[in-house]
Design a protein that fits this description.
- Helices cover about 20% and strands about 40% of the residues.
- It has helices at about 5-15, 60, and strands at about 20, 25-35, 40-45, 50-55, 65-70, 75-80.
- The protein has a 6-stranded antiparallel beta sheet.
- It starts with a helix and ends in an 8-residue tail after the last strand.
Length: about 90
């Protein structure tokens, strides 16, 4: 993974108070818990009984649409960062 893509994912994880990752077949909403060389782990759901951790690979992330919950406007915003040139 390039350093630029890693910085992109870190900025995404820090954006808003929740993140949403839209893949081709499924959308995950929650909080980014960990970023590794292989991908990231997202905690979904609202508590330990309903929520689960989801691993998303780097290949999936490179083709995913990323969103964050903007608390100022109370809507999902598409995530774009200065690191998008990876």
């Amino acid at each position: 993974m390039s350093d630029q893509f890693l910085q992109h994912l870190v900025a995404f994880a820090e954006a808003g108070n929740q993140q949403k990752i839209q893949l081709e077949q499924v959308t995950h909403q929650g909080w980014v818990m960990e970023i590794t060389e292989d991908g990231l782990v997202m905690s979904t759901g609202y508590n330990e009984k309903v929520g689960k951790d989801v691993s998303i690979s780097m290949d999936e992330l490179k083709h995913a649409k990323l969103f964050f919950w903007d608390t100022k406007t109370n809507i999902w915003q598409a995530f774009v960062s200065s690191h998008d040139k990876y």
